[in-house]
Design brief:
nine-stranded mixed β-sheet, alpha/beta, elongated
Length: 304
């Protein structure tokens, strides 16, 4: 029974292509098939699902109501099949493969610069890194490991603490010099840069350092940390940014801490493993390596 419900990938491809073109002939041209072969593939798929996928309207083929509902699932199946084969081909010559889901900014600014160290230790490992911002189903997505910001809760997976997130106020050197001898209270009137997804972050920082922030929400807003970093480097104002995201900018002096007044945010970073990979050798090796890298931390320049 189960095998009868597994679709022929060629028939699904013919359906998706015909739906996209709205024409069997053009679908055949793309797939290097005859129009009759495309029609036969779609007919076999219709027999398998027990419903018509197309209707003929004025000598044209258009998706039926069922076909419209079926199309997104067909496209998802084709995409997953292509991803599966691409990964298989690209990793077939390697001893291990590791598929990693990570937060976009964390991945580009903290993880990827460190990956050469891991690959030097594990040269026979093929790495695939994709960005994900919210929890997902490991069975559907096919990842081996994920890096998550928030609470240590994830369905059908185990979470291991990686690190706290610590934010500090930073600005370009020119802006930082204006507030070098100031106190946290003096930043209330500074040009503040806000992250749209965390609108209370500055308010929380002021409160944490004993300041009543009457104007804590004033300033320009951006929806990604990468934009906030660019805005601060460009001299638009003072930004609260996690230290791990600006290691390079602090090292080069593109961004300067206003003063040593950090604040740990309420959530942390976690390494998430699907339950079935809790004992997987390469996945656990990568988890242990991540924890080791996080324990090294980041050293900030001292105030002069």
């Amino acid at each position: 029974m189960r095998r009868r419900l597994i679709p022929d990938i060629v028939s699904v491809q013919a359906f998706e292509c015909a739906a996209r073109h709205g024409n069997f002939t053009r679908a055949g041209e793309e797939l290097n098939l005859t129009q009759s072969a495309v029609s036969r593939q779609i007919m076999e798929l219709e027999q398998q699902v027990g419903a018509r996928l197309f209707e003929r309207v004025r000598q044209r083929v258009v998706l039926s109501d069922f076909g419209k509902r079926f199309l997104p699932e067909a496209q998802k199946l084709l995409s997953q099949s292509e991803r599966m084969m691409t990964l298989a081909v690209s990793t077939s010559h390697m001893k291990h493969s590791l598929s990693i889901a990570t937060l976009p900014s964390f991945g580009s600014r903290w993880l990827i610069p460190r990956l050469p160290k891991f690959l030097k230790l594990r040269p026979s490992t093929a790495i695939t890194v994709e960005s994900r911002s919210v929890p997902f189903d490991f069975e559907e997505e096919g990842f081996d490991i994920a890096i998550h910001y928030g609470q240590p809760t994830w369905a059908k997976a185990t979470s291991t603490f990686l690190s706290r997130e610590v934010v500090i106020p930073v600005a370009s050197r020119e802006i930082a010099e204006l507030y070098h001898d100031c106190s946290p209270a003096d930043l209330i009137n500074a040009p503040l840069i806000h992250l749209m997804t965390r609108p209370k972050l500055w308010h929380q920082w002021f409160t944490f350092h004993g300041v009543e922030p009457e104007n804590g929400f004033r300033g320009n807003r951006f929806d990604q940390f990468s934009m906030i970093i660019g805005a601060a480097v460009s001299g638009l104002g003072v930004a609260l940014i996690p230290t791990y995201l600006i290691e390079e900018e602090i090292r080069t002096g593109a961004l300067v801490p206003i003063f040593d007044k950090p604040m740990a945010t309420e959530f942390g970073y976690y390494i998430v493993l699907p339950e079935e990979l809790r004992s997987h050798e390469i996945t656990n090796a990568f988890k242990d390596w991540l924890i080791e890298q996080a324990d090294m931390g980041i050293s900030l320049p001292q105030e002069e």
